[in-house]
């Protein structure tokens, strides 16, 4: 059968329209509506990373006057960091479209976490640990984004903007694509302690501009001032006196998961308040963190 001549361009034209529609940038609303439900394993991984290992809420929850998280305001922002001469304010990272990041695409959220810039191109400053998060593997980053998408929207306008006494510089260097394999405990422990839980942002010698020195990991670190007074992050290197060289595995794990020092003293809030959260880390992850800490050369 011969097709009428005028019908010939119709099919290609329809295909072209469909193709253009598929390629054209979609509005976040459409993007969200059309996104299939995330793979349950990816979402579970993201929840574990976001709520436990990386504990984004430690900075992004809304807190009351005695630093108690306000119920119903999870990840709604507002915590002020008045340290190192800066006054940084944690933004609302719930799915609220106006006051949170509900309008951002997955790629924009991923770029904020791992590359440190917002959709408008502005840079994200400290203490958001972007330098550490640059090492987050692709799959773990996708998992975090999948989890953030499930965070209920909370309308909370964080009015104050961060003010830095120094110019923010773009974050450079490569970003990670894959995580170290399961059977490399020291490398996996480093990935958890350096990149995900950002332990070493506090537990490292500090460079003058308040950045952790990657060559000083494990040395006595960041000085933190707050309702708990002034406290300095402990030396976690294998130094026998200044570090944890003589501590038993149980003592080190108790500090991380119960917030108690080797002598039974409760550790100050920057560490103590996170311990109940880190108690939820898998025994495998805790073992890897321990293996990594044990590998740190002695530091004074
Ligand atoms: C040590 C504190 C801290 C931790 C931990 C932290 N953040 Fe942040 N984050 C901040 C601060 C402070 C800012 C704002 C910095 C600025 O104003 O430039 C920020 C900014 C952001 C932004 C940009 C939002 C906006 O509207 O500008 C996103 C997205 C974000 N963080 C996501 C996360 C996620 C996801 C995690 C956990 C994986 C996380 N953050 C962990 C402190 C933190
Ligand atoms: C926000 C900063 C901060 C982060 C992040 C942090 N710590 Fe700490 N940590 C501290 C401070 C401060 C102390 C000392 C508290 C005190 O002396 O009361 C401490 C103490 C410790 C101790 C006790 C050392 C000793 O002498 O007994 C261990 C072990 C430890 N941290 C491990 C970790 C690990 C592992 C992580 C990541 C999973 C981590 N910390 C993340 C600030 C931090």
From TrEMBL:
Q: Which UniProt keywords apply?
A: Heme, Iron, Metal-binding, Signal
- Name listed for the protein in its UniProt record: Cytochrome C
Presence of the UniProt keyword Glycoprotein in the record? no
Task: Please name the source species.
Answer: Muricoccus nepalensis
Q: Does the keyword Heme apply?
A: yes
List, alphabetically, the PROSITE patterns matched.
Answer: CYTC (PS51007)
- The residues forming the signal peptide are 1-31
All copies of domain Cytochrome c, residue ranges: 41-152, 184-297
Q: Which PANTHER family match?
A: ALCOHOL DEHYDROGENASE CYTOCHROME C SUBUNIT, BLL4482 PROTEIN-RELATED
A GO molecular function held by the record: metal ion binding
